[in-house]
Amino acid sequence: MTDDLHDTPDQARAEASHLSSPAARRARPSRRNALLGAGALGILALGFAGGAAAWSASQHPEATFDTSLATTPISQLSNASSVGIAGQVAEVYGNKFVLSDGTAKALVETGRAGEGGKLVAAGETVTVQGRFRDGFLHASAIQHADQRIDELDPPPPPHRAPGHGLRDAGPAGPDAAPDAN
Q1: Which of 21, 125, 129, 134 has the most neighbouring CB atoms within 10 Å?
Q2: Which residues lie closer than 8 Å to 83 by C-beta, 6 or more apart?
Q3: DSSP summary character for residue 12
Q4: Got the DSSP string for 57-121?
Q5: DSSP class of residue 25?
Q6: What are the pLDDT digits (tens) for 137-176?
């Protein structure tokens, strides 16, 4: 009787006796080790590619100065996604400064780029763009009077406090009375 790989029973026996020789027994583990090594390298490559993709996705998009964004008087600021304000730097406190436009004052937070208080100077006229939230402006870009632009790390995304949004709506839903949840 023959199998699919061999034409005659004699060829099958010859193959079986060849595989039982000491040289064949030493060759088999090296082939197996090569396959295991190639598989491990493949898994490492997939892990590396996945880690690179995750790191890339976690990076913030670059901040840019939007020349089409109109400036808003400081007295009219409210929590918004993106605002621009212009005025004169009144005081500098490390990575924060107070900006005054004649109608009101606003505290501007510049992040790491402003540490040391060297990003702006008291008395300087600037235009600042960013996100106004929680009573101060998280700056993403500053344009100086000489048209020089300092692009900063973009402000952090807005967060929701507990009790706000659909996540905290409870089993009765977001439109239910507060005592129903």
Answers
A1: 129
A2: 69, 72, 77, 129, 130, 131, 132, 137
A3: H
A4: HHSPPPP---TTSPB--GGG--S-SSEEEEEEEEEEETTEEEEE-SS-EEEEE-GGGGTTS-SS-
A5: H
A6: 999 899 999 988 888 876 556 666 665 555 445 555 556 5
Please state, in angstroms and rounded to a whole number, the distance separating the CA atoms of residues 13 and 15. 5
For 109-140, b where at least 16 C-beta lie within 10 A, e where not — what string? bbbeebeebebbeeebebbbbbbbbeebbbbb
**Do residues 96 and 108 make contact, with C-beta atoms less than 8 angstroms apart?**
yes
Residue written as tokens 């436009």?
A: 101
| pLDDT value at residue 173 | 57
Residue 158, CA distances (Å) to 108, 137, 155 in order: 16, 12, 9
Q: How far apart are CA 142 and CA 151, in angstroms?
A: 7
Q: Is beta strand 125-133 parallel, antiparallel or unpaired with respect to 149-151?
A: unpaired
